[in-house]
Every structure is written in C-alpha cells, then in structure tokens.
C-alpha cells in the first residue's frame, strides 16, 4: 500500500518502468511488428486517426524526464549523485540516464511523419527510437532501481 519507508519512491519508479514496458510492447512494438508477428501494422498505433501517437509518446518521455530530474527541484538524479552511483562505464549514473532521455527523445524527433506512416515508410527511424527506449528501460529498471534500493513489482500484464 506504499506505507513502507520507500513506498512512494517504489511506486513511482515502478510506474515509470511499467510505462516504458508498455511503450516497448504495445505503443511501438505492435505497430512495428517487433512484439507481434514481425510485420508492420500501422493500424495498431495508439492514435491511428488523430495522428497523436508520436506526440503522446514524446509527452510521456518528457514527463518521465521531468520526474527523473525533479524539474526545478530535487529528483532521482540528485539522489543518485548523493549515492555516488556510477554507470557500467564509470560515469555518474545520473548523467548516463539523463543523456539517454535526451538521446531517446531525439530519436523520436528524427521520425519523419506520423507513427502511422513511419512504421512502413521509415521503419529504420522507428526501430532506432524503439531501441533507445529499450536502452532507457534497462538503465531505469536495472541500474537506477538497484542503486536506489527500489523493490520492483510485477503488473498483471507482464506474463509472470
């Protein structure tokens, strides 16, 4: 119920991870065919008629980045700095994660047109963004969660 000492942080990090997993499996994975039959399915984009799929994904990522940095206040990045957490490359983990947020958002900015058309017209651009989201997920789910001592929970739709 979130009543333990780190309950709120656990819940927030778990929700961020869940949202990234949903982005990978459903919002990007199914239309690209990466998590379905291998065939591009533009009809499976989140908003096929209003063409809001890319703006919604970018808004989700932007909000996650704001939560991560704390906006103008303290965020997970500051906590990781306090803990002197390092990435696998030896750089501050907070900087590695922030850089990956920027790289991921840039990959989505590079997609030409709407997601509905890009999955067939520019699959390389969409797949590049897909891979950047996967990299971000690993940084949050493995590295950040481990350093912060977050208890990862499983949701009903993760197959476990």
Written account of the structure:
By secondary structure, the protein is mainly alpha-helical. Helix content is 62%, strand content 0%. It has 6 helices and no strands. It has helices spanning 7-32, 53-69, 76-82, 93-109, 115-121, 123-148. Helix 2 runs antiparallel to helix 4 (93-109). The longest helix has 26 residues, at 7-32. The two termini are 21 Å apart. 27% of the residues are buried. The model has no long low-confidence stretch (mean pLDDT 91).
Give the number of DSSP strands: 0
Mean pLDDT over all positions: 91
| Approximate helicity band | 55-70%
Give the strand content: under 5%
The largest sheet, given as strand count, sense and whether it forms a barrel, is: none
Question: In terms of structural class, how would the helical and strand content be classed?
Answer: mainly alpha
Specify the number of helices. 6
Give the radius of gyration.
16 Å
Order of helices and strands: HHHHHH
Unreliable segments (pLDDT under 50, ≥5 consecutive)? none
In whole angstroms, the N-to-C terminal distance is 21 Å
Question: So what's the overall shape?
Answer: elongated
What is this structure, in a nutshell?
The chain has six helices and no strands. It is an all-alpha fold and 160 residues long.
